[in-house]
Amino acid sequence: MQTIKYTFIGPIRQAVTMARLPLKGALKDEQLHVVQEAGILIKNEEIYEIGPYWDLYPEAQSIGAEMVNLKGDFVALPGLIDCHTHICFGGSRAKDYAMRNAGISYLEIAKAGGGIWDTVTQTRKASLEKLAQLTVNRSNRHLKDGITTIEVKSGYGLSVEEELKMLRAIKLANENTSADLITSCLAAHIPPKDFQGTQKDYLKKISEEVFPILQEEDLANRIDAFIEETAFTSEDIQSYFQKAKEMGFDITVHADQFRTGGSKVAVDFAAISADHLEASSEKEIQLLAESNTIAVALPGASMGLGVAYTPARKLLDAGASLAIASDWNPGSAPMGDLLTQASILGTFEKLTNAEVLAGITFRAAAALNLADRGQLKHGYIADLIFFPTDDYREITYQQGRLKPSIIYKNGIEIK
Ligand code: NIG
Ligand code: FE
């Protein structure tokens, strides 16, 4: 029988639970459920109770909880969730960044054979173990910033063997970091230059030879595709996504980054999320708002490319659910600082604290189809972060400068 361990943390100046909020639409700060002078009682890996510290104190004592006394003022939040990254990669694209800033566009670099293909070459050169180590290092950096769940995509392998190498590397990385890594297969990132056959032939091969192994080896249950001029068309992707759906995979889409089309595919396939959306117009915004597909803004990609932000305000006002992710990758989003990016998106798009924090907690959990995290609530995973401040508004106000100084993953403090 498993022994039961209770831990009682507090008093916490403010615990922002992110509970009791709607999944979709605009949010006001007044809607946030903030417990003042809070205590959090953890039972093994889960949150058992959250409430006023002195109300819970007698119970915590009587069940023999380990008392963790916080010295100073702290604001607690659920562990942050980054629902879109590409942190498994080899090499660097500092050269691309310099070229872009000298006036050559992302798509021009891609068309000239650089861009994503350059990272494919670097990633193919790296061993599985090396890629796993790089992924662990980047995950641990994220974890220090309070990001306890991280989605990680393949997509720099672009052949059956190389995609599987990446996916197995991410699985190995997951076993070697305290953060939870959620893997997505992005073999449909761009058509590989060295494949003999059409784009549809490539996608057919991946669906026949990679999809079954994803399930056999428990490598991923999410299928992603980049729908764009330099990647795959809406038409190319139909039978690929059809097959993925039939096999029970969740669908997610790189949509409307430079031109529209992707979000329609996402909604048609009832995708869990449609990510990017920088180019979405009123039509796509409406489509997403009427669907259950979570819209994911990637401000780090806008900052990395120097282009407009995802119309987050309009999406929320139309009634969509909005998550915010870093898109951390060597090309378009090299910074990888989720909290800074989400805060700055809030400044430019006029998002409330509630909307920004929802986008990196429970709405990001929904974008990963995870119902066990993203809120401070009974039964949820005890992923908790504590910011050294007495006012939750300081978090976005300091635009990412204020980081959490105490982090719990599955009820255990990460030192
Ligand atoms: O989400 N848009 C396509 N894929 C990535 C970029 C990957 C890269 O440039 O290496 C993105 O921005
Ligand atoms: Fe991406």
From TrEMBL:
Protein origin, superkingdom: Bacteria
Enzyme class: hydrolase
Every Amidohydrolase-related domain range: 76-405
Alphabetical keyword list: Histidine metabolism, Hydrolase, Iron, Metal-binding, Zinc
GO molecular function: imidazolonepropionase activity
Short name of one Pfam family: Amidohydro_1
Pathway(s) per entry: Amino-acid degradation
SUPFAM superfamilies the UniProt entry points to: Composite domain of metallo-dependent hydrolases, Metallo-dependent hydrolases
UniProt feature coiled coil, ranges: none
EC nos: 3.5.2.7
Cited NCBIfam families: hutI
PANTHER family linked: IMIDAZOLONEPROPIONASE, IMIDAZOLONEPROPIONASE-RELATED
Name used for this protein in its record: Imidazolonepropionase
